[in-house]
Amino acid sequence: MTGTKLDVLLNRAKKVVVVDGEFPMHCGGRLLSPTIAYETWGELSSQRDNAILIFTGLSPSAHAASSAGDADSGWWEEMIGPDRAIDTRRFFVICVNSLGSCFGSTGAASINPETGQLYRSHFPVLSLEDVSRGGREVIRHLGVEKLYATVGPSMGGMSALAFEILFPGLSESLLIISSATHALPFSTALRSLQREMICHDPNWSNGNYSAETFPITGMRLARKLGMITYRSADEWGERFGRERSGKDFSEADPFALTFEIEKYLEHHSNKFIGQFDPNCYLYLSRASDLFDVADHGTSAAEAIEKIKVSRAMVVGVVSDILYPLHQQHELSILLGRGEREVEFVELPSIQGHDSFLADMDNFCPVVARFFDN
Amino acid sequence: MTGTKLDVLLNRAKKVVVVDGEFPMHCGGRLLSPTIAYETWGELSSQRDNAILIFTGLSPSAHAASSAGDADSGWWEEMIGPDRAIDTRRFFVICVNSLGSCFGSTGAASINPETGQLYRSHFPVLSLEDVSRGGREVIRHLGVEKLYATVGPSMGGMSALAFEILFPGLSESLLIISSATHALPFSTALRSLQREMICHDPNWSNGNYSAETFPITGMRLARKLGMITYRSADEWGERFGRERSGKDFSEADPFALTFEIEKYLEHHSNKFIGQFDPNCYLYLSRASDLFDVADHGTSAAEAIEKIKVSRAMVVGVVSDILYPLHQQHELSILLGRGEREVEFVELPSIQGHDSFLADMDNFCPVVARFFDN
Predict the structure, then answer these.
(1) Which residues from A are below 8 Å from B202, CB to CB?
(2) Integer angstrom CA distances of residue B236 from A17, A209, B230, B300
(3) If you average pLDDT over residues B268-289, what whole number do you get?
């Protein structure tokens, strides 16, 4: 893992662990000495019993919150910090950049040490089991042998479930947010179409794009569809209504983007384009579709039995169309079959799947209650 | 309107009316002598009081049902026919191909008589008000001065509302199915993205494609997104689950379509590609977003007051994400403010927006009740 001096200067908070030797991948193939990036907040207690491990959704980095090393706001800034719901005065909080991502962890945009070339589309099939094993490498490196809790929103919830199944007993408790045991075909259709948008951009060229031939259009369209699936009709109805601006009827551009909702999507998808590697997006998106708890047993129920936490909370949102509420309810029922103390929380947020990032008023108190803060 | 002899032979059911002279468009511009295609079933009574006018959704032709002239099944085959919910023994049923479409009515794929060239992207901005006026031309041509009912599912429901507002008193009753007074920003986002997928296909070339350079990829992706918005997560969960086939993990194609839902979308979108003109799709899609009943008054409520039917039914489906149920409920409330007898029907179908095409068990009895059949 090399970075320019500037990187190191700006991101003193980002740390990495380099896996020693071979890292076999869940679906076949292997990586040689992959890097897993992570950040931490707070201090590990002398009893080493206060660590919380957070797996992220598809697109965030490990920078979940600001810190002395990196003052920029993180993706869960309001959730993590001194006296926040995840209280860094009390807990040692670890957030892992998923293996396969592009924020310090090894992924398709990294150099394969065996060839000296970028992996690109020759990266092996990525599974969320591999992502969870990346988290395992980080806590081993940090000397954490027992986690107070594992936390995962969205795709991170599936990585957290994989973690609990592959490493039973490592974690005392489990907080799953807006996630599920597997993707529904509706969600797979939406993600599959995003992948197609990228792969059909002529610039993608089977993953062999350069900075000059970046598949901008495919990424922009894919991100727009992603954003549509992350929010909700009710939220946008309230925020945008039928507001329009600009010339509606231009013969030069009869299908111009004039509705506010069209401009909003254009603005935010353009911001995303430079921030995420297209090949990494494809691998993580596909991993989200491939994951199924049921692959770890004869059924999802049998697989969930392997999870050895004493306590779990499963949180969902009524307006989520990507991981609909009934999936969290079903997961909570499966978790509740054992000796575990399980709470299912249904939140009335209107921001859809992204509510855990957008509706802090509803989410912070629930997470705080889980941690008894 | 010219067709090859084969066309005429195969489509004896399709009839056309050619508008005499100029046809001014709602948003500006005009067409010269446009053609409106339609089909009819049953016979106009001697009192001329049994005609039903049907406006279609975005993509269907006027071929709503089979007949002696065209034995192929129509898009509402189970709904229209002798002793069916829309009983052709009793009613004279007229279905109109929307102006702007490509099944006999003048649209972007037609020749502009003033230039001798295809309109392509020089077709004027299309509005559903124009579509409704196409229907007006057809019934005038047929000598119908009073309609028993106007019927519109999906986009056709908005065309029907435009028709009732522009021509108050022409219709005795109104049946609106899975439609709304306007598009929500969420629905606009989904349609806007479909338009972008077509326009970003390099083959689209600002609408100047040929049969050899058809924007196949853009159309396929757009249709897939359309299909996703037309159905529901629950239906696909039941139908497809997590079924997969083929090689999951091919290094040659790491993002291959292997889930059954991916293959289903691929199959059906490929079927659609050859059947619909991309420019026509763009115009009709944009017209669906531009339409707003409220543009016909100081508010939607005031605009709806202009509608002079004595009776209306508004039908919606719980699983519809494109025109969600609350929109039909709101429309029924607005319609109910006058002297009209209005019924709101909420159906439990799981096939989403397309339920009116897919769930005949729930839909036929409701439509039959409206027509007292």
Answers:
(1) 202
(2) 41, 35, 11, 35
(3) 96
